[in-house]
Structure formats: C-alpha cells, structure tokens
User: Which sequence fits this backbone?
C-alpha cells in the first residue's frame, strides 16, 4: 500500500521541481518594440562602379573571398591561379553594382557604413525602409584603417536615427541584434549574444572586434549591432566564411572617435610613436627577467621620431601609456592611435628589468607613408662560407655590402647563413638571411662573442633572446636552451 502511495507522490514532487525550474528560467527577450523603433534608421546602400570586363569578374570573387564567400572561396583560388595575381585589363567598361547596409546617426541625414561598402564607388545611393525610391548620397569621409565611412543625404530634416552606446560596458553573453540587408534582403533582423570581445582577426592595425553569433552575412556590412537599450554598440563588418554564427563588429567606442572627425570634415588623425613592436611570449619574458608576458617589446626605434626623442631604446618593454596598462602590441597601437598628435604623455617602460618613466610628445601617424615603406623592403641572401655553428645557427660577420642592402648604417652583427632542420632556432622562427645584432641585449660582432653570451647568461636563464635585422625590420626571437641547468 505504501509503495502505491509513494510512486505517484514522487512523480508529483518531480513535476513540481521541474515546473519550478522552468518558471525560474530567464525568458528570451522580446525585441518587437525595439525592431519597430530601430528598423527605420537602418538603410540599404547600393553602389555603382565602372570597371573593365576582367575587373568585374575578379572584383566580385575578391569581395566574396575577403568578406566570406563560403563555397566561392575554392573557386576564387582556382580563378587566381589561372589568371594570376593581377587578372585585370582589357575588355569593355561595365557597371558593377553592390549592396551593403548602413544606419542613420542624425535627423539631418548623416549615415555610417563600412569603407569597403563604398570603396571606389562612382555613385552611392541609399534606400530607406518603406521608400521605394533610392536617394543619392555623398561621401563625407572615410577611414580605411578602421573600415569606416560617413555618408550624407541632403534635403532631410526629420529622419529616424540611432545613437551610439558604450561598447566598453558590453559584457560577453549580452543580447544583441543585427539589422541589415544580407544578400540584398532588406531590413533583416537577427538576434544573438556577444560571443567575445577584443578579437584580432588581421583586418587592420587596430583590430579590436566584438564577436557575435547574431547571424551576419554578405550585405550586412555597415549595419548596426544594437543592444537591448536600442543603442549601437558595434558596426557589423566581417564574417568567417567557413564558420556559422561567427561575425565581427567594430566597437562603437572606436567608431565614435573616427566618425566625429569625419563629420567635422577632417581626416582622421592618430598619434604616432615611431617604433616597431612585437608581443612577448613566455621564453622572451624569461630572457628579459619579467614575471609575465604583459607589455609591448620595442624591436627598433626610428631616427628622429617621437620615441627616439624621448630616449626609447630597442629592447625596452612598454607597459603603460597615458595612464593605461599595455597588455600587448595591438593594445599599444590602439591606445596610441586614440591620442592626439602633438600631445605630451607619460610612458612606463621596463629597461633591462628596471622600471623607467619617460615623457613623449606624439607625432602623427601617416598610413600612406607606412605602406610605401613596407613596399620598399628588400632582403639579401648569402652563402654559408666561413660560418660557425652555434645552437643550430651557422653564423658569420656581415659584410658592408650586405649591411647596406638591409638599410644598416654600418656593418655590425652576425649573418645567419643556415638554420639546422628541427632545431629550437628553426621552431622559434629564426631564418637564414637574418642578422643577429644582440644576444640577451648584449651586442655581438663575432661568433665568439655570441657563444660567450650563450654559455653564460643564456645558460643561466635557459633561453637566448636574439635581436634580429630582417628585411629592413628589427624583431626579436627567443630560442630555448634545453640542456641548460
């Protein structure tokens, strides 16, 4: 009898427990009112570009390839192999049309989108929701380094618009929605969460993307990523072609500064130090006597530039600037870029393990000049004659001619002529043609000097940090010494 009563009682208790858990669940957000309010401020952007016949086909494939074309990727690769890296020229002019998204940020018709949406366009048109007639828009300004552009439609005074929110307060897991025109499907709404922040995807020097699983597809570029308060926290700009639910948006905090300058009719001005930098791995931190890998390692200092005037040296580790800690090289680039040219600010460094504070007056970053300098870099290859092998590296003093080819003011350091297969040096990305300038921050000009540092300071720390000249650039590579005590 007791068993008969207990069974239904247990079932009832289990049901009540399940019902209680179900009632306690956080409900999905109701975004209908938010979509009704935000939707009219999102626009369809169409562009027209006059190109030659071969350009038409190639540019189409490039757009899909770079921004996520899925199955088109394989076809593009074969197309490029067949036609070569240029694949342009000849043919009759054609009109190429493309679509993207954007959103209104003021009642008088200013519109934000991606630079790649309107890049090289002869004509830009904007279509508002529930309006069948597109309106011509002029390009107010654009910034290639952050992939942002500002448009303006004239004759408007009462447009619905969206405001920027604070992306720095956005938390991973927060609900966000994207509105745009994927594949030309006007005013499509998708809902998801913030999957991650601070993503670096190789799109530019200031990568700091918000990752979201709200569905983003070709055509969404330039559209807003909106929080549940109706504020724009990101500008949708990139996707992973082979993935699902992996989209990226430019944080609003980065975008606001750029858009404000463009709206004032100015070109975007960014601070400039005049150094080359790299991240710090565990072996490099060990060689530098650091407790962690936080900071940006200065690989070279450009003559006459702000960093040189402030006394920075190759091998310094920048740990803070303008009151903010520096975690890595990308973080330093972003922070310096937010500061104004001509602004004087303090930097905290680690120099041979000791903290140093310096004051630096920033210059102005010149993106075009940087691109030209990168394009002018050239290497030099030499044979293995008269080389001495140490830790898997064949080394010999560099000649004056070789030094000149590498942009060096004089012959100094050791040329690496060979790197042993499978050695720790090879695995640490040390290459033939590199020139070793310093070992553990000590200058070396002969193989004997190199070996002395390895046998003393190197074995003590278990690693050697090589300052290397590679194709007119200075970098650091750290090689572990496995048999050291």
Assistant:
């Amino acid at each position: 009898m007791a068993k008969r009563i207990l069974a239904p009682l247990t079932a009832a208790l289990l049901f009540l427990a399940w019902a209680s858990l179900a009632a306690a669940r956080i409900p999905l957000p109701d975004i209908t009112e938010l979509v009704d309010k935000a939707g009219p401020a999102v626009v369809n952007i169409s562009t027209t570009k006059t190109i030659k016949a071969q350009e038409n086909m190639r540019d189409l494939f490039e757009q899909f390839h770079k921004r996520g074309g899925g199955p088109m990727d394989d076809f593009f690769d074969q197309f490029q192999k067949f036609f070569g890296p240029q694949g342009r020229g000849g043919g009759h002019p054609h009109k190429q049309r493309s679509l993207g998204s954007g959103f209104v940020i003021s009642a008088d018709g200013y519109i934000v989108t991606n630079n790649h949406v309107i890049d090289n366009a002869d004509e830009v048109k904007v279509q508002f929701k529930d309006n069948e007639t597109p309106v011509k828009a002029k390009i107010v300004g654009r910034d290639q380094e952050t992939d942002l552009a500002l448009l303006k439609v004239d004759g408007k005074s009462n447009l619905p618009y969206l405001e920027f929110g604070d992306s720095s307060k956005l938390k991973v897991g927060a609900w966000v929605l994207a509105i745009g025109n994927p594949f030309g499907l006007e005013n499509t709404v998708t809902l998801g969460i913030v999957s991650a922040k601070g993503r670096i995807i190789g799109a530019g020097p200031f990568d700091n993307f918000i990752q979201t699983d709200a569905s983003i597809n070709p055509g969404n570029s330039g559209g807003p990523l909106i929080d549940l308060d109706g504020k724009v926290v990101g500008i949708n700009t990139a996707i992973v072609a082979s993935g699902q639910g992996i989209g990226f948006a430019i944080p609003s905090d980065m975008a606001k500064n750029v858009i404000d300058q463009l709206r004032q009719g100015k070109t975007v001005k960014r601070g400039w130090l005049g150094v080359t930098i790299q991240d710090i791995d565990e072996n490099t931190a060990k060689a530098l006597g650091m407790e962690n890998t936080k900071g940006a390692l200065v690989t070279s200092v450009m003559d006459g530039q702000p960093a040189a005037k402030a006394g920075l040296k190759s091998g310094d580790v920048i740990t803070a600037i303008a009151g903010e800690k520096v975690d890595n090289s990308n973080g330093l680039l972003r922070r310096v870029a937010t500061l104004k040219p001509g602004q004087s600010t303090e930097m905290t460094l680690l120099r041979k393990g000791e903290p140093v504070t310096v004051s630096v007056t920033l210059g102005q970053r010149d993106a075009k000049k940087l691109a030209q300098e990168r394009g002018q870099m050239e290497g030099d290859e030499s044979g293995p004659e008269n080389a001495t092998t140490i830790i898997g590296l064949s080394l010999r003093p560099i000649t004056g001619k070789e030094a000149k080819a590498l942009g060096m003011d004089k012959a100094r350091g050791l040329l690496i002529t060979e790197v042993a297969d499978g050695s720790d040096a090879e695995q640490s990305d040390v290459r033939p043609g590199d020139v070793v300038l310093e070992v553990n921050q000590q200058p070396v000009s002969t193989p004997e000097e190199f070996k002395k540092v390895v046998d003393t300071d190197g074995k003590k720390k278990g690693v050697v940090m090589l300052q290397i000249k590679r194709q007119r650039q200075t970098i650091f590579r750290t090689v572990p010494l496995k048999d050291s005590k």
Remarks:
- The chain has four domains: 41-152, 167-263, 271-374, 377-480.
- Confidence is low (pLDDT under 50) at residues 64-72, 78-90, 372-385.
